[in-house]
Amino acid sequence: MNLKKISSAIFAAGIAVFMANAESITFKVKDGEATLDIPSDLVPLVNQHKAQIEAALAKNSVTESQVTNTSTGYKKQINDFYDKYKSQFPSDTPFTDTVNGLNDFCDDLVDTIPNTQGVQNIYADAWIGKFLPGVHFGAGINVGASSLDISSLKDTAAALDIDTGDIGDTFAFPTINADLRIGGIILPFDIGVAVMKFDSSSYGAIEDAIDPVSFDYTVVGGDIRYALIKGGMLRPKVSVGAGYYYTSGSIEVKDDTASAGMDFSSKAFIMEAQASIKLLFLVPFVGTKLIVSKTKVDWSVDANWAELIDVKDDSLAGIINNGILPSHFKDSTSSTTFHPQLFGGVGFDLGIMSLTTTLGYDVKSSIISGAVSARISW
Question: Are 164 and 154 in contact (CB under 8 A)?
Fold first, then answer.
């Protein structure tokens, strides 16, 4: 077989492989319709933006031949782009990996955020006592963290050629909030509130440890507890309560050529029960919470394709300018989840000051959380 026949055979084989992994999509153009074979991996992206693509094709007066020409048209551009795109990443479906990674990470985030809310504003005493007579009051700082699986976010970063360095697959998602609790009047209850604003860029050690990932979020909420058993020294206290927390924020991973970000908001309704006993200056406690959380996550990706796959802008001009290769795409997810959480720990009553250490465990999602609090109390 001569060289020309060998080359023809290789080319034919390549076309056959491509066609087996491509789908035909028809677009409206200036002189009618044009059909383009799109790699299957990119079909959801193109279909999601088909209306915008056709609007751009009409605005730019694109003809059928400009789209389907195999040597200079968009057909060649999309094939050349995808061959280069796929060759640079450790997957046969890099775009699908990008989307799946983001969707999976959204699921992980939906599980973790309620657990960060569950370990805030916990006092060792199941009930701190009545405000009158006397003063039963506490205010201070709570520092905690909940485990967050970021392996899916790292998969997305890899598919966008973003280097995540030595970041592990599990991240301790932090909380640093101020809280206040005051005893009830007449009836045996107390009320607590907590607020927090956290931005990873404000903490150099955290920023360096998770670069190129960044996040910021805000939390506000509170609860009310009613003492079923008032207890006292060497006598247990038991309370039941309910609370509400609202969290909103964002997480992003990016470099100079691409970025993937998520904006999230979560409303958590909490029902809880807690028991404690005071043993001199020690206050061990245990409890349980049922967290019902409604969380919404909007994610988006921006990709500078020409730089990302290292090609000249003009070789992708047609498919980029007309949106056949969108440089920005997005989606959202919303869900209501239930999180049964067990928690416990020990408090240290040091007179006007108290310290509390807490450990929580989400039975459903196997998420571990912890917190340490320092408060002025009397």
Answer: yes
Q: Which of 323, 375, 333 is nearest to 351 (CA)?
A: 375
Q: What does the H/E/C string look like for 130-189?
A: CCECCCCEEEEEEEEEEEEECHHHHHHHHHCCCCCCCCCCEEEEEEEEEEEEEECECCCE
Residue with tokens 């958590």: 268
The pLDDT tens digits of the residues spanning 236-290 come to: 999 999 999 999 999 999 998 899 999 999 999 999 999 999 998 999 999 999 9
| CA–CA gap between residue 23 and residue 40 (Å, rounded) | 6
Strand partners for 278? 233
Give the Å distances, CA to CA, from 12 to 7, 22, 82, 223, 305: 9, 15, 18, 69, 28
Specify the DSSP class assigned to residue 257. S
DSSP string spanning 56-107? Answer: HHHHTT--HHHHH-TTTSHHHHHHHHHHHHHHTSSSS-HHHHHHHHHHHHHH
User: What tokens appear for 309 in the block?
Assistant: 């796959």
Q: What is the pLDDT of residues 313-350, one digit of tens each?
A: 678 888 988 888 888 888 888 889 999 999 999 999 99
Q: How far is CA 257 from CA 149, 166, 253, 260, 348, in A?
A: 25, 20, 11, 11, 51
Joined together, the tokens standing for residue 243 give 């609370």
- Is pLDDT at 356 greater than 80 in this prediction? yes
How far apart CA 78 and CA 288 sit, in angstroms, is: 55
- Contact between residue 332 and residue 341 where contact means Cβ atoms under 8 Å apart: no
Tokens 């007449």 belong to residue: 186
SS (H, E, C) 290-325: EEEEEEEEEEEEEECHHHHCCCCHHHCHHHHHCCCC
Q: Which residues pair with 111 in a beta bridge?
A: none
Count, residues in the chain: 378
Q: Are 258 and 303 in contact, with CB atoms under 8 Å apart?
A: yes
* Contact criterion met (CB below 8 Å) for 270 and 243: yes
Q: How far is CA 184 from CA 135, 230, 233, in A?
A: 10, 13, 20
For position 313, what pLDDT does the model report? 63
> How far is it, in rounded angstroms, from Cα 145 to Cα 195?
15
